[in-house]
Amino acid sequence: MLYDYIMKDYKGDDVSLANYKGQVLLIVNTATKCGFTPQYEDLMTLYSKYHDQGFEILDFPCNQFLNQAPGTSEEIHQACILSWRIKFPQFAKIDVNGKSEHPLYRYLKDNSPVAPGKRIKWNFTKFLVDREGNIVNRYEPNVNPMAFEADIAKLLK
Prior knowledge:
Blueprint: E1 6-8, E2 14-16, E3 24-30, H1 39-50, E4 55-61, H2 73-84, H3 103-111, E5 126-129, E6 135-139, H4 149-156
Parallel strand pairs: 3-4
Antiparallel strand pairs: 1-2, 3-5, 5-6
């Protein structure tokens, strides 16, 4: 179950995903030097609009795609605060594919109703999770977060 995972935040502290029970989640693998990095702006727009209604974004930097998330987790976090003024939780860098992929991402991929088991193509692949912890959709990197705002709003009702 999604809530069974304990992740490291950008400071290296343990964070249980059980802390997010009852919230609508958007789980995203990100990078600061990617062509999709401007999506941070739209992620913040959605976060600002819906956070008070129980919406949370969980940001997992990933350096697996052409080393587009250079630096330490702390350095990435500082860059995101300075450039995009993010306020949502950011975690330590993880791998999302291959031998060293984090078990959370194996779970997300295997339990997604869209393309179950399919590899993560690139940074900014997004998983939308309902309040019960069910993965309801997977959006590929080229899908702008604003394109599925209605899906988020529906889950929050």
